[in-house]
């Protein structure tokens, strides 16, 4: 963790010294390094350890002390694995599928502010761009599943696409509610609007009495959009082997996993930026104890957004071992008959509150 | 910060870097990994069984219905986003307009709901009884 934080602050100071292209590449490389590091440490190793502790197991223990080097061994193994493209597959779609998945997930990081001064591109349509580009993974999943020419993969892909596009609706309406509270689509502006000396009291979640409704809706929908349990029927291992990536081996498999952990962090970060202040410190100033001022700054900003993202990823892992998997009809019922109507209710209530009450 | 590149130029740098990362990963693996294909490895994985036929089949029509409903709602949300950024200045009248706009879509949702298009396992088709037409049909047959 500390090493990657230092890397960010180094990159920040270098920005003004180096020429433009170098600076830009550094800006772009930081999220890439972040995705790789976080997926390796927290994503793979952390998830295995957390899963293990929740089930009263020890998890990986063999490679290194407490199995710390397990993911490194996994990466070496994946690099050396033979790359099998089955004979009857559509080779072009099969190869390009993981690429679209990863590039889509990575492009979303272009608008993710890692602190008051660090953002790839502060687009004025940043939030809109982010939810749009995260949804691009549908194309990658369909390419991977269809290109495999494997029945498990095809079933996994079409289930996944149906699920992602359905949950896109409540998610988008929930984000719309956040946009109505902020009156902007710029990711950095969202953070600045939630800044203040009372810490968490300035977060949109606590600024509007109805905000918890879109917050919960977006969280549930984001689970479905990243195919996490309890919405993991696209890759239900007990019935579909592995879903759309059944046929993938070696590096392509690794790329799919990086993309998956990347979009897991992305949806968690969007959730925390829209409703929980993003890189703002949640600690309030209490009299002489100016906790908020002490915990604000470029490095603290990166710390808070990453910690908030990691917290929601932890909740995602926790839910995986708490809730049973939903059936496909229950999934559609939850999306269209529960979340979407409630999202519309939240939309109307928030609009009325923002205009007439506030 | 930058005079030459617009914000979307930065996004383009991200795009290039992402592609370079994926292609670089593929190439590194290509240098390291063995390649010893045989017919069993190149066969489709189906839990040890030999695959029968292609996986490129016609799939359930329900998926198309879901996709259609999705497109309608997504377009609606897209139209609401620009309104949402300025609706505080526009005030009550624009709110009513947006609610009418959303209301039309909600009527569509209710319609799809009542028709049973939102149920994954479709209930038995609800064909209304039309005794008048049936009688006409019968009389035509007999005559």
Write structural notes for this entry:
- In chain A, 68% of the residues lie in helices and 1% in strands.
- Chain A has 358 residues and is an all-alpha fold.
- A two-stranded antiparallel ribbon of chain A has the order 1-2.
- In chain A, α3 packs across α12 (250-275) and α4 packs parallel to α12 (250-275).
- Chain A is globular and about 65 Å long.
- The model of chain A is unreliable at 16-20 (pLDDT under 50).
- By secondary structure, chain B is an all-alpha fold.
- Chain B has a domain at 60-128: Up-down Bundle (Methane Monooxygenase Hydroxylase, Chain G, domain 1).
- Chain B has helices at 7-32, 39-42, 62-90, 92-115, 131-142.
- The radius of gyration of chain B is 28 Å and the shape is flat.
- The mean pLDDT of chain B is 77.
- At the A-B interface, α2, α3, α4, α7 and α12 of A face α1, α2, α3 and α4 of B.
Produce a short descriptive summary:
The complex is a heterodimer of chains A (358) and B (143). In chain A, 68% of the residues lie in helices and 1% in strands.
Please identify, by name, the CATH architecture of the domain at 60-128 in chain B: Up-down Bundle
CATH superfamily label of the domain at 60-128 in chain B = NADH:ubiquinone/plastoquinone oxidoreductase, chain 3
Low-pLDDT runs of chain A:
16-20
| Quaternary organization | heterodimer
The biggest sheet of chain A amounts to: 2 strands, antiparallel
Strand content of chain A is: under 5%
What's the level 1 CATH class of the domain at 60-128 in chain B? Mainly Alpha
Widest sheet of chain A: strand order?
Answer: 1-2
Key structural traits:
heterodimer; A: mainly alpha; two-stranded antiparallel ribbon; B: 143 residues; mainly alpha; Methane Monooxygenase Hydroxylase, Chain G, domain 1; 66% helix; 0% strand
